[in-house]
Amino acid sequence: MWTYLPWGPFADAQAFQAMIDDTAEAFQRFVILDAAGGPLGTASYLRHDLAFGSVEVGAVIFSPRLQRTPAATEAMFLMMRRAFDEAGYRRYEWKCDALNAPSWAAALRLGFQFEGVFRQERVVRGRNRDTAWFSVIDREWPALRSAFERWLAPANFDEAGRQRLSLGAMIKAQTEPQPG
Predict the structure, then answer these.
(1) CA-CA distances (angstroms) from residue 164 to 18, 21, 92, 117?
(2) Is the sign of the CA dihedral 173, 81, 118, 62 positive or negative?
(3) Is CATH 3.40.50.1820 what the domain over 13-175 is classified as, yes or no?
(4) Angle formed by the axes of helices 141-152 and 167-175, to 10°?
């Protein structure tokens, strides 16, 4: 889980809290909680650029209990919705280590468009990191929002909590030109 992040793993909760405190000024962090109020993960808005209307989602730390769940998808949808519908951003970015296949796949699954790789964009843990860039822009957002809302609807899940239709299928249906 920590391979591609610039910090962690942490020896204890106090060390993790110290990182949270150290990055508080740069990150607008959100904590994802379970139904009982226990923390499952965090995600942040980074690189706010109000003049150009762009913001990045990053510093995503999802526990194994949150990874690949409807709650994880909903958390990403809520952050995207807030960025576009409430804050009025034009561009929503996702960046990850180009070697981080799970993050790359998550970006594509969530409807982000791959834009390219910035080679040797930074040094992380003593190695050159190539950074993959993805984005959603405001004109794509209405179709994505509709797909997310349809996917998250209770009717899309059976009694065991399994999805009936994938988010990818719903995004494709919303974004492909319709005949006629």
Answers:
(1) 42, 41, 28, 34
(2) negative
(3) no
(4) 140
Q: Output the CA angle 75-44-122, nearest 5 degrees.
A: 130
Using DSSP, state whether 118 is helix, strand or coil: strand
Could you tell me the pTM of the whole model?
A: 0.87
Which pLDDT does position 178 carry in this prediction?
58
- Give phi and psi for 48, each to the nearest 5: -60, 125
Write down the pLDDT at residue 50. 84
Q: Checking DSSP bridges between strand 113-124 and strand 91-97, what pairing results, if any?
A: unpaired
User: Model confidence over 73-130: pLDDT tens digits?
Assistant: 999 999 999 999 999 999 999 999 999 999 999 999 999 999 999 999 888 888 898 9
